Every structure is written in C-alpha cells, then in structure tokens.
Amino acid sequence: MQEPAPTSEVRDPAPSGGAEDAVDLILAQWARERPDLDCSPMGIVGRITQLQREVFLAQRTTFARYGLDAPSFDVLAALRRAGHPYQLTPTALMRTALVTSGAITQRLDRLEEKGLITRERSEADGRAVVVTLTSAGREALDAALPDHLETERELLDGLSEQDRRQLADLLRRLLVARGRVPQEP
User: Phi and psi (nearest 5°) for 158?
Assistant: First the structure.
C-alpha cells in the first residue's frame, strides 16, 4: 500500500490562551498519518473521555469522605429532590439513574443495609414498593452535597461563567439529540 502524500497538519484550533492538550497531539499525529480522514470528532469525544475520568476520580474522593459512592449519592439525591416524604418507586429511581432494575436493586440493598433508605409496600397500592429516604440518609446526603458542589466548581475552574453556560447549552443539545430526555416517573 502506498503511503499518503504528506499534507499540512490539521489541528483543532487552540484555545484563546494558546495552550494545547494531549488530544491536540493525538489529532496532529492522525493528521500526519491519515490525512485522508477527518479525525475532528476525536477532539471532542477524546476530551469528554478524559474529563469523565477527572470527574470520576474527584467525585470518588469527595463521596468517600461521607462513606458514599457515586451510585449511592445518585439514589439519595433523587429521593431528596423528590421532596417530602422523600419517596420514589424503584422504577422511578431506575429511570432517574438510567440503570437496569438489577443495578438499582443492588444500590438499594447497600443503602438499606446502611440504614439510609427503607423499602416498604405502598399504602396506596399494596403490590408496589416505595423507597423512602431515612433521616440518616437525608443527613448523609445533606452533609455531602455542599462538598460535592465545591468539587464540581473546582473541576470547572478554568472556565468563565459565560463559558460554563455555553458548555452546558452545547452538552444539553447533544444529549437531547441522543434522546436523553426526561421520562415520566
């Protein structure tokens, strides 16, 4: 097979500060090796993947200080956001967390063992189960939440408020385009 003819390197435009990241290097290498391909999607997806790892590590550290992990925090937060009496069905929690019924059952088992939630038959429909946030669960969530928000603020420190709004809007548009819209509980 014949090597492609060399072309000028195609890079994502550098940010206004002129700094480059590891993804810029990858894109330059692909531009050199495969100038026939448009590798620009790697510039976005590669950065999202790297940021996902950064977010995971930062959240893991934060939640560990409160004896939680991200899945547990998600369940407690969904129950807390539901408002008094802080109850949801396992199905509603599953939809909120975008996980399978088996995954939500495992999360609920762990949280129930820690005394952070209870599961009981619904008074309105004896066939249905309701998950309720206990006072210990509410205290754990309320203690972790400010630290969690500060962790997220720190992750976004390199962006102005305008940049943050623009990024949030772009990510929302991408998620909606991928069908990630709220479902009825």
Answer: -80, 0
